[in-house]
Amino acid sequence: GVATQSTLKGTLNGARLPWTFRIDLKIDKDFRIGKAGNDNNPFYINGYILIENALNTKNVLSVYPYTGNPDDDGYLSSAIGQQSLETQLNQEAFLDQYSIRINNPGNYTLPRRIRCGLSFDF
User: What share of the chain is helix, strand, coil (3-state, %, to 5)?
Assistant: First the structure.
C-alpha cells in the first residue's frame, strides 16, 4: 500500500448505491419411474437447469464514499495522490498496481452462473 495515503472524506450520501436488477431462471421437468400399471409407489426424477443472474448484469454492491464509484476511490485525483505519483520511479507501474488494489470484486454481484442437477422423489 501507499504509506502516505490519508482517509479521504466524501460528500453527503456519497456512498449511496445505485438500484440493482437480477433475473434468475429455472427450468425443470419431472420424469416418472416405475411400472406403467403400478400407482402404489411411483418414483420421480426431476431434472433442472438453474441460471442465476440470467442477464449477466453487473450490479454494484459497494462504492467508495469519496467518489461514489465502485472502481475509483479518488486518491489518485487528490493532491496527496498526485504528489505520491510524482515521486514514483515508474508512474505507469504505480498506476497499474494501484488500479489492481482498488479493483475489489466484492463491489459487484456475481456473474451469470448455470447449475444443472437431478433430484429424486419417492
Answer: 20, 25, 55
